[in-house]
């Protein structure tokens, strides 16, 4: 059963205050990090916004690399570096740190959907690292790689899978 905090506060007398977030599993042992409901909600909102920016940055970086390969203009290299430094890397960092805080607040690490989600996040990190290396190599060499067009939607597919896993929790 969910734990319910003591008496209801005056500002929310119409609804019970849960000590655990509403989507947290029923737990017999406390989580490693027991966040208040408000802190959990803010961290979760930050996590969703950062993850969305991360995915958008990866898709945009793939598109910029594809345009660079098609046009061969050296100005694209600066845009690639700026996109990595200003969007992709900060958003991935915020997403990982906030996701780690949410994970520490979660008590049941045995559920399969969580392992699948973490595997998809690891795949996103591998893809980000690969894109960054391709951008660096492409800036140094005039020979464009031919794989950008085929892989630029990869993060969207992973993102859809992650959202489905988190919302449905199929296993």
What can you tell me about this protein's structure?
- With 171 residues, this protein is mostly helical.
- The protein has 5 helices and no strands.
- It has helices spanning 37-71, 75-104, 112-140, 148-151, 154-168.
- The chain is elongated, with a radius of gyration of 20 Å.
- Residues 1-18 have low confidence and may be disordered.
Helix content: 55-70%
**How many strand elements?**
0
Radius of gyration: 20 Å
The number of helical elements comes to 5
- In terms of DSSP E residues, the strand content is under 5%
Quickly count the domains: 1
**Uncertain regions: pLDDT < 50 for 5+ in a row?**
1-18
What labels describe this entry?
single chain; 171 residues; mainly alpha; 66% helix; disordered N terminus
Write a brief caption for the model.
This is Protoporphyrinogen IX oxidase. The protein is mostly helical and 171 residues long.
